[in-house]
Amino acid sequence: MMSGGEKKMWFAPKTYGYGASLPIRWQGWALLACFVVAVTAWSIIARLYLTGGERTPTQVGGIILLLIPFVLIVRARTEGGWRWRNGDDQA
Predict the structure, then answer these.
(1) Confidence (pTM)
(2) DSSP H helices in 1-91
């Protein structure tokens, strides 16, 4: 049983490198699915309603705006935090 201040982590840490691996709880999978749907929807909307030189920068800007909160949430919810790992870590 968890204490009141402890929060459940949604993502596993990477075994090698820096960052997070795949989700380990349904909330992580839901967050990932929502991110994919949001990026796909944004790309479709931008393609339908924007033309020429404004399309690409607007698409990239929108994706960056979606990516920032996604990365911050994943980082906050990764078991053991984000740090460099070389495969032989036990913690």
Answers:
(1) 0.79
(2) 26-49, 55-76
